[in-house]
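Task card 7
Instruction: Convert sequence to structure tokens.
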Amino acid sequence: MSDEAPDSLIPYDEIVQEALRAVVGRVLGEVERGGGELPGNHHFYITFKTGAAGVSIPKSLRERFPDEMTIVLQNKFWDLKVDEDGFSVGLSFNQIPSKLDIPFAAITAFVDPAVDFGLQFQAVAADAAPPAHEDAENDGSSKERGAKADVADDGSNVVTVDFGRKK
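Output:
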């Protein structure tokens, strides 16, 4: 019996990422259905790739944050709308009201510090995917490239899922 796991024909990493992003959608959907009011002390830090497909933010924000930005949904946000692909929300930046459209696929982190909960994601960039190639002989075994999930050592509930993707 071999210690090496065979390459999977099932895209487990994509399935898990999609399921975890559904958590964000469900939470934001519940806030939307609740009239846009966050319950208790809950508030969210949402980090996303500003250049990802479907992201719509003001030009000034894209220039200021060309790669990634974090927004906070706490006291002053409005018009939260959630659908199966993402959400839109109104926020002020330097006292200028702005509307942001953010697909769930662009989100790289979701944190609710009130309850020490967080998720981290791999950004989906289908158009930036590397071309397919054969494995090099020095890439290591399939086992070394396998999936693993780590819980942060600091006692928080942040879960990082790493599927051994090469960057």
